[in-house]
């Protein structure tokens, strides 16, 4: 598995896309800091970008890589290798290189602007960590989609739809149901609905650190108890981890049985 | 309005009537080894305008009634211990000065408001540099006018609202100056009811159970340069006219029903140069009219300004709104308030003619804040892409928010 991981990783590192991705984040970080000059405000702006763009890029990139390397995968399958190590190797290769681009691309400009000495370093690390989680989650989901669909066009379609659903449509439906059922107690429902979507979950996780005063003003005991404490933070982190593991698990299960 | 104070006549009267006494005033020492061993004994033996010099020590006394104009001075903070049995000092005379005492252990009662120091129907008192600990009510001014309460330190350890009292309470007391006091851990830090032309300046009110400052039916008062921090419900200001609040700091008042400042039925007030930082709600306004908000700073609040119904002819000019989750929230479609020349960190317009004023007007009310007012649970969608999208479309063509609610002259630079 490690060999395949290494191969995929180096393959991607050599490819243009990783650089484009890296340069994109580098530029973004530099422009943000240049325009803001204020680290803490830049972190907030960055949050919006991370929870939207990172999943999009991970999804598209994951699907693209899977389809592109299909011939190579078939070649590997002919070798005496465990199937799970082939696919997991590729998955970690892609997700790892994307994460590296993200961390370096955003980290460098912030370090240049004196991140280490400032007090936003914790918020920033949380942001990067969430970004890494999202990369892993959505690459995993993309691999699942690509594995289940032989047809590339269909695969891409589903992948984009997945992102659109998680990033926008889900929140729309969420909002709608909250307003329609506003007569009922909605605390537990809204918590559950948040946890079920990794993008929403990451957003809440970051918001807990940034907009705490607004969220504490919320009227609702369950909510406050959950969001205002260490426990809420831990549970959110745990669920995010679960979200990462679930696609990986399905990927291996599916790959084991699939007929190529 | 109170009657103008007849200074000249008063000074003359003081000179002729009181002056004679002052010259003959004695200083009576009170201490464990002196002739006079208790404060009560000292007060009994003293004559008007004498000074009681209370030396260091512990005096276990309560219900000390001061019924003549005396000066009580504590040396090295002598402790007056009420042993939780009731009220400690009760002043029923004009021209009383109390300085440098440590007054502790006031009794708690559910029927009587025991105070560490109560002033009743007296005037021209000075309460300076005392320390209060383990108290029910701290300084209680009752129908007393023209006094000064200065440099006192009130440290309570209140746990529940129902069995705790207020730090400094003014009830039907006019023309009082409350300066540079520090109040912590009581129910309401500073409480005023029916008290006019009072000056509250330079006080620090922290970690109180309910309000840092609380006043009702108190007109023509000035509040300046005070600090209100981490109080259970912030500051509540109700049913008063012609208030001036300047240069105060309202910080870290967090909670579901917590406000930096709660304004209810306040008319013709001026609120300027205040700092509202990290509160759940910076200012909550209900039924308050003709208030000028000028040069205030709203920083990192959940809601900077929350307007709930029936607020007319208020004007917000030259304020800074920086990084609040919501700058402004309205619960109705009507707007009769003016917003002009403020700096909004969320402003996304441009300034082509470079006159420092944005070329397109700013709409400070987001559709999202309207939705949150209606269904509070939706707050969980804060900063999501979907919300940004509908906020954007609402900004382009307002449907739910008041369409005349705009800052026509948004500043491009932070106001210093």
TrEMBL record, chain A:
Transmembrane recorded as keyword:
yes
- Source taxon at top rank: Bacteria
Q: Where are the transmembrane segments?
A: 20-36, 42-67, 87-112, 124-147, 159-181, 231-249
What keywords were assigned to this record?
Answer: Membrane, Transmembrane, Transmembrane helix
The protein here is known as: ABC transporter permease
Q: Which organism is it from?
A: Robiginitalea marina
Where is the organism placed in the taxonomic lineage, from the top? Bacteria, Pseudomonadati, Bacteroidota, Flavobacteriia, Flavobacteriales
